[in-house]
Amino acid sequence: MALAKIRNWMTSCSQEHASCNSLKNPILPRFVVQLRSSPSDQGNDNLNPILRITESELSEKAPYIAFSYPWGVRKQPVQLMKNNINEMKHFINYKSLPRAIKDIIRLSQKFEINYIWIDVLCIVQDDPKVKKEQIHRMKNIFENSSLTVQALNIKSVHESFLLPRNHHVHEPLKLKYNENNHIYLRDFKPQTAPTDSTGNRAWMYEEAVLPSRLLVYYRDQFTFRCGGQTQYEDGCQHESFSLSNPSDSRPLIISKSPAPPDGRLDYLADWYKNILASYMPRLLTDPHDRLPAIGGVAQKVKPYIGGRYIAGIWESDLSWGLLWESDNGKAKSVSRKMERPIERRAPSWSWASVDGSVRYEFFKREKHMTGMEEISRSISMDSIQVDDDGDILNYKILSVSARIFYAYFQIIENSRRRFLVARRTFDSAKNERSDFPTQEELNSSYARAKLDITDEECQHIWVWGLLLSHSVGLVVEPVGWREGKRVFKRLGVFNVIEKFWHSGLNEPRQGAFLV
């Protein structure tokens, strides 16, 4: 019954959605599992298929399934390795495979699809060069698959995702809205995100977003999403959203100006609020995958946002991109404090430099935009070279011209919040402007600050502030000099408290470097 329903959905998709028809014969990945039914499998659920690894020249075309699942173990019982690749090209023992992989093979047979991509069997695990190449291609493997199956109802590869689900809900009530649409009333919200560690693997986010056809097994039901519709096992359905058609973004942009809406802002809102918020709290076995694990999504939205994607920051939205802030374990999906890794993998101005969840307050964007575009034009990243995932290939320095002032932290009585207190400016001795604040006025200028790493608060009493607009900026500390300018490292962000802020602190600007 369940498999018949899925087959009907896939058939309807093929017949009715022109945009999905390109998935009929995609180019096979370099390594795939090929399966053939043995004579004893005919009409028999106790399958014993004939399996082997095939290696193609990236030109052969055939339908294939990509499998997304939680490992749940550090070492898989069966893996593709340099010492067994020739053996596995001839034969894979079906009985030796863990339950989840047996399930996806069984499902592929039911759908009459003879090729499957499974990371543990299709990436040479102990060959760094081949492994890096295959990981780099993963975004294309999932995006181009005829069908991606994602198992979110299990915690380990040793569990079966095809076991009966907990059908504890009533069938939704279907009401006619108009000639072409219906409304579904139900007594619960369908589970669209995992509530435990099952789906918190970072790679599983991209594996769910990129495919054009996705079959997801949750604990209570399964869903099928394609380019046209999203179908639920209990009968609900709705139009599918995609990265090329961002969802519920425009209400976030509240503008009082009569200017026409900027469609690019829809994609930026989706990136800051939906994409990063869903991806950031997730866990990585290898912390160096922080950028690669979302690189495919970045490439997908790049044509709509424009500019280069550099260490997780969009060059076309640079000033705002630098203003990420620590979530410090507040993300709903997983409680995790921000940490700074021992081995540096990205510049301090990038969210990829820390482990944990970050966020952008995009709904406050318009409030802070005054002066930001001018400063954005002063930030230079021209000399930075990046790969497709946004990883920086050369030195990680950007130059900026902004207002810089000296400050210290202070805890206000009955409050745990940290505040920056402006003490003197970077070039106050040279400044001769009549509107420049006096030392007394500096002493009464405050900003609300938030460090990236909470545990570092007590280590930094004296800091610097770098204004990126009239009201927001970065908390930084000096780490050296370069070409006669100070070099700073990011520590956090701050918002000025307008009634306690002297406007003379906003000008003039000085040149500096961020690393």
Q: Which descriptor suits the 3D outline?
A: elongated
Total number of distinct structural domains? 3
In the predicted model, the low-confidence regions spanning at least 5 consecutive residues are 190-198, 244-260, 428-436
Question: What is Rg?
Answer: 26 Å
Q: What is the number of helices?
A: 11
Largest pleated sheet: 9 strands, mixed
Terminal Cα span: 58 Å
The tally of beta strands, per DSSP, is: 22
What's the average pLDDT?
78
Task: Determine the strand fraction and express it as a percent band.
Answer: 15-25%
> If strands are numbered along the chain, what order do they take across the biggest sheet?
2-1-4-3-5-8-9-10-11
Helical/strand content category? alpha+beta
Could you estimate the helical fraction of the residues in percent? Answer: 10-25%
Write the layout of secondary structure elements.
Elements: H1 2-16, E1 31-36, E2 50-55, E3 65-68, H2 85-88, H3 99-110, E4 115-117, H4 119-122, H5 128-143, E5 147-151, E6 173-176, E7 182-185, H6 202-209, E8 214-217, E9 222-225, E10 229-232, E11 237-239, H7 263-279, H8 292-305, E12 309-310, E13 313-314, H9 318-321, E14 325-326, E15 358-359, H10 372-378, E16 398-411, E17 418-425, H11 439-443, E18 446-451, E19 462-467, E20 472-482, E21 485-496, E22 510-514
Parallel strand pairs: 3-4, 3-5, 5-8, 21-22
Antiparallel strand pairs: 1-2, 1-4, 6-7, 8-9, 9-10, 10-11, 12-13, 14-15, 16-17, 16-19, 16-22, 17-18, 18-21, 19-20, 20-21
Helix pairs in contact: 5-8, 6-8, 7-8
